[in-house]
Amino acid sequence: MNEQLKKHLKILQELGYEYIYTEREMKNSIEEKIKELEKINKEIQECKKCDLYQSRTQAVLGEGNPEAKLMFIGEAPGGDEDKQGRPFVGRAGKLLTRLIEATGHKREEFYITNICKCRPPNNRTPTPWEMEACFPYLERQLKIINPKVLCLLGATAARAFLGRQVAITKERGSVINWNGKLLYLTYHPAYVLRNPNTEITLFEDIKKAIELAYTD
Q1: CATH code assigned at 191
Q2: I need a labelling partner for 205 at 20 to 30 A (CA). Which of 10, 69, 168, 211 fits?
Q3: Measured between alpha carbons, how far is residue 40 from residues 45, 60, 139, 158 in Å?
Q4: pLDDT digits (tens, 9 = 90+) for 137-158
Q5: The model's pTM
């Protein structure tokens, strides 16, 4: 059993899952999900559906538990993410990780990704066309992982799902049904870094999103 699989099985056990499947069946299920996600990752590394491929170092698929009940979704990778090939590893990512851990959970319990898989030049906001071009990759991730709750970090991520302008300062905390899943709208950690007084609000929102994900 590879180390990544062992880690995910350990997390599921810590969360109190009662296995209906045998360990072999569970192993095969998780391995299949990892393989499907790896296929998408190979595709996005060669993707040229929009102009962002011209300036990227690498595309960033996402990372985390392939059986996650909660997925955190931002707008696009930043400079650190573009270099490392991992989502939310810069200052905003460190804040997100710290707030998740403050709830008593681990970042690895969840899946973290972005709407766009490539960094926009100078960290500008992705255009609607760029998000539309990339959204099918995210839809495939959702189908594979099948989370119950999608915690949308910031107005741009929310707009990609809702197809309209979003006033995040007014709409954060909203829970919206979307294709059988629950969208939970909140601030992007980068916004909180610029507005430190909103950190407690983001923390409370993350707690609520986690509670939603683990409530039957």
Answers
A1: 3.40.470.10
A2: 10
A3: 9, 10, 11, 23
A4: 999 999 999 999 999 999 999 9
A5: 0.88
